[in-house]
Specification:
Elements lengths: L2 H9 L8 H21 L4 H12 L2 H11 L6 H24 L2 H6 L1 H24 L1 H25 L6 H22 L4 H22 L4 H21 L8 H20 L1 H11 L11 H13 L11 H9 L1 H4 L9 E2 L6 H8 L10 E2 L8 H4 L4 H4 L1 H9 L1 H23 L4 H25 L18 H18 L6 H10 L1
Parallel strand pairs: 1-2
Helix pairs in contact: 1-2, 1-4, 2-3, 5-21, 7-23, 8-9, 8-10, 9-10, 9-11, 9-22, 9-23, 10-11, 11-12, 11-22, 12-13, 20-21, 21-22, 22-23
């Protein structure tokens, strides 16, 4: 058998075709070296080739072994539970459409269609494209974040217009942590470049969090801080960052203090923390998220294990109007009966002017037709999916849903910890942390402990634009795991060093 046919038989066994040229080149170089050794011992070129190929062994066996080492990885269990949770979220969004308004479909069900496409495309091509275009992205993405900041300044702060900037910047914030990890990883071997990238990321992050996110900055900032700190510790623990571990850990603590200072030392930050730790002290009306947390706590505490909550019409009216809480505290916050009134002006004429910013709810139902959905907080169909599941069907179904979400995260991080590549594991761990902390904050909010604004429950809670970000994050984890054995980061780094 000649050399070319031998190499063909080996590479034919490699299932991932883009990897065949590099494996063939490496084997060919090894064979040429062995042939030269035999020729130096007095063998002819033909005899040296035959002897080398005979010593190499069976070509099919070699190729099969190489394919086992360099094959694309699959995660069937994770894929199954991801599909189930995705379909659960999609079905819930469609159910909301059937029971409520078409606008909620635009905000929910329709977002799942491009989100699912983005998840599949990113899983199939995301990590190889990131590796291929990482230098271009290193320049383009910071410019994109600057463009978001300029957009906010021009259209919101100067012109006084509001183009859903909170959703745009929240979407950008969810993706900032993996972007920062990729940039810092690329500069980790050059101290000057690493420091420059660190200051750039810190500046962009500060601008994005503390100047743009006027509505959702607390939640997005907390998720980003937790994600970046945990990812940095992961990279240090795995030896991805060069040098001793003491200095990097010290740097992480310093960065944590620097980044989290404004989050907890500003007036808004202290207010968010106080509302999270002691919601009763922050309640002023039934419109407050802190009131919603207390309401949810009270309702789920009365829900049995095996079936939904049972309330009399009078009890539901008390919950719906807020009388159960405000009757002994501030009766002016109890909901107003709006039946028979066609305008706010008629209501003001009937009940008088209320204090600015503290108007109670207008109640459009009575004890004869009140339902559980009438007394739940606004946007309960998105922000309180777990709590509503408990209230409608009992604690056991609610715990089953929590268990399914927990199983998803367990399988997700099991796959992440198996990734061997340094960049792939760092990026996947960062994306996983971003998904994890959203889920943790969402669960706490559903148990009555909400921090700042609501986060999203990945795959299930719609979140409009953020579902796209979550699908992109999840798709990148799949892609990093899938291509971990076929994308050789060491060869790429060696080529860059030679260049």
């Amino acid at each position: 058998m000649d050399k070319e046919r031998f190499l063909d038989e080996i590479t034919d066994q490699i299932s991932y075709r883009p990897l065949r040229p590099s494996i063939r080149q490496e084997l060919e170089s090894h064979i040429e070296d062995r042939i030269e050794e035999y020729e130096s011992l007095g063998f002819s070129t033909s005899d040296a080739t035959d002897q080398t190929l005979a010593c190499m062994g069976d070509a099919v066996s070699i190729g099969t072994g190489l394919n086992e080492v360099h094959k694309i990885q699959k995660a069937p269990l994770l894929s199954i539970i991801t599909a189930l949770l995705f379909l659960t979220g999609f079905a819930a969004a469609c159910f909301r459409f059937l029971r409520w308004s078409p606008q909620q479909t635009v905000n929910g069900a329709i977002c799942y269609i491009p989100g699912g496409i983005l998840l599949v495309m990113t899983a199939l091509k995301g990590y190889p494209l990131l590796i291929r275009f990482r230098k271009v992205l290193a320049f383009a993405i910071p410019l994109l974040y600057l463009a978001v900041q300029v957009h906010e300044i021009i259209f919101t702060r100067i012109n006084g217009r509001y183009f859903n900037i909170a959703n745009i910047t929240y979407f950008a914030a969810l993706l900032f942590a993996p972007v920062a990890v990729a940039l810092l990883y690329g500069c980790r071997q050059d101290r000057k470049h690493f420091l420059a990238a660190s200051f750039t990321c810190t500046g962009l992050w500060a601008m994005l969090m503390y100047f743009s996110l006027s509505y959702e900055g607390g939640t997005a900032a907390l998720i980003s801080i937790l994600t970046m700190v945990c990812t940095a510790c992961f990279m240090i623990h795995r030896g991805i960052m060069k040098g001793s571990k003491r200095k990097p850990y010290t740097g992480v603590l310093a960065a944590l203090a620097l980044l989290s200072g404004p989050l907890f030392l500003t007036a808004q930050g202290r207010s968010n923390l106080q509302a999270f730790l002691s919601p009763q002290s922050a309640i002023s009306s039934t419109w407050d998220d802190t009131y919603n947390g207390i309401l949810i706590r009270s309702l789920i505490a009365r829900t049995p294990l095996t079936h939904g909550i049972s309330l009399s019409p009078e009890e539901m009216m008390d919950y719906g109007t807020g009388a159960w809480y405000f009757a002994s505290r501030n009766p002016r916050q109890i909901g107003i009966d709006a039946a028979g009134h066609t305008s706010n002006r008629q209501l003001f004429e009937s009940y008088g002017e209320w204090e600015p910013g503290s108007a109670p709810r207008y109640i459009h139902y009575s004890a004869e037709n009140v339902t559980l959905r009438d007394i739940l907080p606004q946007h309960y169909y998105n922000n309180y999916i777990i709590a509503v599941c408990i209230l409608l069907y009992g604690w056991l179904p609610g715990l089953a849903l929590i268990g399914a979400v927990a199983l998803f995260y367990l399988l997700l991080f099991t796959c992440i910890t198996r990734i061997r590549g340094k960049l792939a594991s760092s990026l996947a761990f960062c994306c996983g942390q971003c998904l994890l902390w959203q889920g943790v904050l969402y669960l706490l909010g559903n148990l009555g402990y909400q921090y700042a604004s609501f986060s999203n429950l990945p795959l299930i809670s719609e979140g409009r634009m953020s579902i796209m970000a979550n699908m992109l994050l999840l798709g990148m984890i799949y892609s990093a795991y899938r291509f971990d054995r076929v994308v050789d980061e060491g060869i790429l780094e060696l080529r860059e060093a030679e260049a």
